[in-house]
Hints:
Elements: E1 5-9, E2 15-16, E3 31-35, E4 81-83, H1 85-91, E5 95-100, H2 110-123, E6 128-132, H3 136-148, E7 151-157, H4 162-170, E8 174-178, H5 182-192, E9 199-200, H6 209-213, H7 215-223, E10 231-235, H8 240-254, E11 264-270, H9 275-281, H10 308-317, E12 321-325, H11 327-341, H12 347-361, E13 370-375
Parallel strand pairs: 5-13, 6-7, 6-9, 7-8, 10-11, 10-13, 11-12
Antiparallel strand pairs: 1-2, 1-3, 4-5
Helix pairs in contact: 1-11, 2-3, 3-4, 7-8, 11-12
Pyridoxal-5'-phosphate is lined by residues 108, 134-137, 203, 235-241, 299, 346, 348, 376-377.
Amino acid sequence: MSFDYTLRCGLCDKEYDSAVIQRLCECGRPLLAKYRLTGSHSIIDKSLSAPLSDSIWRYRPLLPVKDIRNIICLGEGQTPLLPATRLGDHLGLRNVFIKDEAVNPSGSFKVRGMSAAISKAIEYGIDKFCVPTAGNAGGAAAAYAAAAGCTIRVYMPADSGDAFIDECKAYGAEVATVDGTIVDAGAKMRKECDPEEWFDLSTLKEPYRLEGKKTMGLELYEQFNGDLPDVIIYPTGGGTGLIGMWKAFNELEELGLIDSTRPRLVSVQAEGCAPIPKAFAEGREFAEPWPNPQTAALGLRVPSAVGDFLILRAIRETGGEAVAVSEQSWREGVKLLGHFTGIYACPEGGAVLAALIRLLIDEKVEPADGIVLFNTGTGFKYQHVL
Length: 386
Ligand SMILES: Cc1ncc(COP(=O)(O)O)c(C=O)c1O
């Protein structure tokens, strides 16, 4: 039911065998699943029943798991695309939508990637995982490890907040906290977890979280009846959300389902940690690591990303933008989302609205543009910063 695929390095294009576990390319950059796409094949697996049919696995032809028995599904994906009419009226925009990822299991978009990565790992016979996290990815990974009966170690910054730590523990994960950022959490994890024993689920260091994330693009294609929006605004840490949608649209074009027109992809970071907007403004292919990253929008406190060049490529190829927003403006964004849409957004979702307001001021969006704002998670886990 799935298209065959190989794995190719996103930078040097070296090919790897997908029949065995792969991590990064020998050049140190991410591997991407490259499907052998043939036209006239549906992207939807109509043979599935619930819950798979109501989850990301609806798009099983474009996902990597071969044997349906390996799929770990908690009902991830198929999130609502909500017309934000009152917010649009307030801003003078006619077609604003919110894709609300807060309603996912574990409360964030991260479950899409973890469902795909952990299901595929199970297909390879893996049952011990480790992951560094800013918070949401850890909860998501721990939930799927629990559902699969696997063991997991989660490493997160000590200031992540109790909700993230307690959630992981509730799923039976071992949790270690570190002073610093997700980079320091990753360093501690690598010191303590032998890679022969513990499978590292770090962002883009295995190829399959990205496959799960790309379903956000496939859902938009379906929810807009094939007529994609003009602009998609997305908060960027490691970048899998943005890269995933870019990949999804490229695959839809290869299948002949869309033309070469793309939504303009807008990457949002915080002013206190903005390696992507800086590299974008400077016309660079790669982003320099951000010294002393500071933001309470914890998912955006990612000073360097192994997929930086892919984020920048996705923005440039689609005529998009990279925007850095202030702490005050994302807080205002959370408030506006609450007041005008009834969504209790995470800080990263607030940052997305702040970026839209910046684009409006800079006249980079038009009143009639179809605009999708992603609220990537629930505000409930961020009581300590909101
Ligand atoms: C709520 C939320 N939004 C956005 C992001 C950034 O996602 P990505 O690392 O895929 O760019 C994160 C990452 O932790 C997050 O938790």
